DNA sequence: CCGACCGGTGAGCAAGCGCTTAGTGCGCGG
DNA sequence: CCGCGCACTAAGCGCTTGCTCACCGGTCGG
């Protein structure tokens, strides 16, 4: 099994139990991704899960708690993907290639989840948002570490490492916005293409 | 006056009249950018404009019409920036540099407007959304034209022109999401930096 | 000097929202 | 075969929402 298949096979909330709570979470992810958090009603979520509106409140205190749980699970996965690439063996170019490819494959393959995770952050209340922002900083740190290593080794040519880190993450994250299952590109293709684009952005010397 | 200053000086809705309608539009842009379309109430918009809730409906039929007008004006500006760069004299690299720089300067300098324009599209009703999607296609066409010219001239090395077009626009658009006035970067700096990154992405030969 | 006009207001309607509560059906230990 | 616990529902509460409407005050042509 390839790393790509691993990323796509795993349903992010497979660890959520009981079954009814998971069904509600899946329904919420779909609804939030389609219409946005504020435009989604608790009745809509419960309806998609085949339950009455009140059932939601047996498993979650509020609608916002649902979003918070989704966001936390999603961000944890993002951090795991990027840190795993940053910690991997190999040249900085290989690690950056892996980071971007896996990160993009995840955003494309799970674009409904990713859309919620990346674009509904403002709907969280202050405390929960602060929690999630911490996880995002870890994403930033992982990418920055790879770039720094590459510059130190003389493999990358990057005048502004924080700026380049931001641009790389921004490029990958925005995949969740435009990726469309009906489109011609598979997650794998986008991942490979984006890895190539990013290596060029950081001025990686072609492998000899 | 530099092109950058021109882009930033012009308030996008300076052509909106009468004065009260413009004040309402400015208020709506701020509110939509801060909290999102669905989380913004008509009372909030009217309040920011210093008017009663009912005043909104003298100048706009619905809250959605306000969003539609904002979106149309914003997209028209985006199309103008990109087409102007595509039509400009100069090498493909120079035209691409100008397109990205001006587009990014606009997204950073008017990041509240840009956020609404780029991220609240789904809140439009079907007919209005279709209208705006047409304008977005023109953005795509302008960038694609520059890339095609560059490849034909042998100046760029791009294996997948539609894919690269998408990536370039995606990178620029996402600036509206993360750009923060309190941050250290000015719109000009981000624009210059992003133009450089994009030229690398398309494998532009360094100018001789 | 007047009355038509028009941008703006105060009050409020119908609908829909997040969430609660009293009650129901069902599985399971004794 | 009973009765308890619990996941779940029907009904609905209090509130906010987008939007409306009767009314008001300043301006201006005649």
TrEMBL record, chains A, B:
This is DNA-binding transcriptional regulator, AcrR family. It holds the Pfam family TetR_N. Transmembrane segments: none annotated. Residues 18-78 form the HTH tetR-type domain. The keyword Hydrolase does not apply. PANTHER family: HTH-TYPE TRANSCRIPTIONAL REGULATOR RUTR, HTH-TYPE TRANSCRIPTIONAL REPRESSOR BDCR. It comes from Streptomyces indicus. Gene3D superfamilies: Tetracycline Repressor, domain 2 (1.10.357.10). Residues 41-60 bind DNA. GO terms for molecular function: DNA-binding transcription factor activity; transcription cis-regulatory region binding. Keywords: DNA-binding.
